[in-house]
Design goal:
Layout: H1 9-33, H2 41-46, H3 52-73, H4 77-93, H5 102-118, H6 129-156, H7 167-178, H8 191-215, H9 227-240, E1 255-258, E2 265-271, E3 274-278, H10 285-302, E4 305-311, H11 313-320, E5 325-336, H12 348-359, E6 363-366, H13 373-388, H14 404-408, E7 411-416, E8 422-429, E9 436-444, H15 452-466, E10 471-478, H16 487-498, H17 500-503, H18 505-513, E11 518-526, H19 532-542, H20 546-570
Parallel strand pairs: 3-4, 9-10
Antiparallel strand pairs: 1-2, 2-3, 4-11, 5-10, 5-11, 6-7, 7-8, 8-9
Helix pairs in contact: 1-3, 1-5, 3-4, 3-8, 4-5, 6-7, 6-8
Length: about 575
């Protein structure tokens, strides 16, 4: 398989480093080193006499270079264009004469300018059309507002300047200030006049910076929910899905990308400018590899980072042949149901708890479909109690969430106590071509007796054995047995050891391990180590239910409001802000 060549990664990093250095030189010169008597070719050509203009223009060049550095690293074409413009302006502001501070700045401007021009092919990523329009709206509309503010200020408070301004002169001066140029006759004689000049220039800089941010923003994902795509995905899953993740490709939080031949697909979710791919591509092997390569090129074109999450060992090897990196992120536990037995010393506690529950009259049953309303209400009661206990919350992407429609589309097993109350439940999802059975939600009442979940799992093992399955998939044990060297693997091992109190990694692994499963490695596949932190954060965010994120945000605001109330009560009535 031919590795994917993402053109110019090294060149982009060099261009970003050069732009960062030039930005530092320009900002430092504008703020600290540029003398008031400084002359530049641009200033002499303009014929201006205001000493502040070169400072602001040099500051603008530096800020613009800083603003586009993320875009340069993301291969954005517009970012390289804006960086070239900033480097060209920087060159015009530095006199090409020896003996001065500006020699290094001028030389560096030339190096950055020619480096960017010579590396144009390393910046193929397009700009988002909507963001591009927004950037132009910001530039035109924002500068119009700044122009009006400058015109009003120069015309109505002209007593703050050396000479009184008539309307045409105020128009000309406001227009020059709009582009951070010398204001000719607008020479302030008071600090208020000077503050007005600086404020107008600062507002103009802010508008330009916001516009530049919109222009270099990565392409946004605006996927539409197309029922025919979901049908195609289900057809491919029926023929080629062999992992426990198969059913979760059909959740509503996924966007689909199909190979050019239409025989394979991958599903992903956008988190900011990062595409989090769910597992590996599904389909015939050659088509799956093609889908991965085509998707990586799409990400490069859109300026996206990407990561393939919970990839199998075989899938990780295929993706690694494309030139991508793989990192083990945990192990998946699979109980061999055909050979599983509760005999032996290690299962003594499990046998005892199961026998005690059965003697007390607890039993497992499969609910008939469609599930009746009162029974669904009982399931919701169990789920709500589980969510309220111990900080549990709904997750998504690699898991389903409680929903009557979702449960009515799967097989649901419950544990009932003698009086008939449902104590716990789980739902079994379709396994497509997988040899292993899989469940999703597994929830219990906080006050239910110990062992009800184990009772459910033992029943599922018996069900899957009777249906001819090879195993029962217990899911991922995150960060278990991380191997390899390097700082990333070392950081994950440290998180596993030191983060157990917060995340209970060891407890989860121990619970799964008591079933004597076989362990299969799972990987995160990404482009380079530079991206791994952003991809890891995106993976964590992709698994958060968005409604829960909103609830947490609102909770944080409410908590902040409660903390501020005592302070606000102590404030004078006129200083107290309104609280909604």
């Amino acid at each position: 398989m031919t590795p994917i060549r993402l053109p110019g990664l090294r060149r982009r990093r060099i261009a970003a480093a050069g732009s960062l250095t030039l930005a530092f030189v320009n900002i430092t010169g504008a703020v600290f080193l540029l003398a008031p008597t400084h002359h530049s070719f641009l200033r002499e050509a303009l014929g201006g006499s205001a000493p502040g203009a070169p400072r602001f223009l040099l500051l603008l060049s530096g800020l613009l270079l800083l603003a586009v550095i993320p875009g340069l690293l993301q291969a954005k074409r517009m970012a390289s264009v804006l960086a070239c413009m900033a480097a060209l302006g920087s060159l015009a502001l530095h006199p090409l004469l020896p003996r001065s501070y500006d020699d290094p700045g001028a030389l560096l401007s030339i190096v950055v300018l020619f480096g960017l021009a010579g590396s144009a092919r390393a910046f193929p990523a397009r700009s988002d059309p909507v963001r591009l329009r927004q950037g132009l709206y910001w530039l035109v509309g924002g500068e119009c507002v700044v122009f009006v503010i400058g015109l009003i200020g120069l015309y109505f408070i002209d007593r703050e300047f050396v000479e009184l301004s008539d309307l045409p002169e105020a128009l000309g001066n406001a227009l020059r200030l709009l582009f951070v140029l010398p204001a000719t006759s607008a020479h302030p004689v008071t600090r208020h006049g000077q503050h007005l000049i600086e404020a107008i220039r600062a507002l103009s800089l802010m508008v330009i910076a916001i516009s530049a941010w919109h222009l270099v923003h990565p392409v946004l994902n605006r996927a539409l929910d197309r029922p025919n795509e979901r049908r195609r995905v289900r057809q491919i899953l029926n023929g080629h899905a062999t992992t426990a993740l198969a059913q979760f490709h059909l959740l509503d939080d996924k966007t689909y990308f199909f190979s050019e031949d239409g025989e394979a697909f991958l599903s992903y979710r956008m988190v900011g400018a990062t595409a989090v791919v769910f597992g590996e591509p599904v389909g015939p092997r050659d088509s799956s590899r093609a889908a991965a390569a085509e998707f990586v090129h799409l990400c490069a074109l859109n300026g996206w980072q990407f990561g393939f999450h919970q990839v199998t060992a075989r899938g990780a090897d295929d993706l690694a042949r494309l030139g991508l990196r793989k990192l083990k992120i945990g192990e998946e536990a699979i109980v061999p149901v055909q050979t599983f037995a509760l005999a032996g010393k290690s299962f003594k506690h499990l046998r005892n708890s199961q026998s005690a529950l059965e003697r007390a009259g607890y039993a497992v049953e499969e609910l008939g479909q469609p599930i009746a309303g009162p029974t669904m209400d009982a399931l919701r009661e169990v789920s709500d109690a589980w969510l309220a206990d111990g900080g549990h919350r709904e997750r998504s992407f690699t898991l389903g969430a409680f929903s009557p429609d979702y449960l009515r589309e799967s097989r649901v097993f419950v544990v009932r106590r003698p009086a008939g109350r449902i104590e716990a439940f789980t739902n079994v999802v379709p396994r497509f071509q997988s040899a292993d059975g899989t469940f999703d939600l597994m929830r219990r009442r906080p006050d239910s007796p110990n062992g009800v979940m184990d009772l459910l799992l033992v029943h599922l093992i018996e069900i899957f054995r009777a249906e001819g399955c090879a195993g029962l998939n217990l899911g991922l044990a995150p960060l278990a047995n991380i191997e390899g060297g390097g700082p990333v693997a070392a950081a994950l091992r440290l998180l596993y050891e030191r983060g157990n109190a917060a995340f209970n990694f060891k407890g989860l692994h121990a619970y799964k391990d008591k079933w004597h499963p076989r362990w299969e490695d799972r990987f995160l596949v990404y482009r380079s180590d530079v991206d791994v932190l952003a991809v890891a954060i995106a993976v964590a965010r992709a698994g958060e239910d968005q409604s829960i994120v909103g609830q947490l945000a609102r909770s944080g605001v409410d908590r902040a409001g409660r903390l501020l109330k005592p302070v606000l009560r102590a404030s004078p009535p006129t200083a107290r802000p309104a609280l909604s």
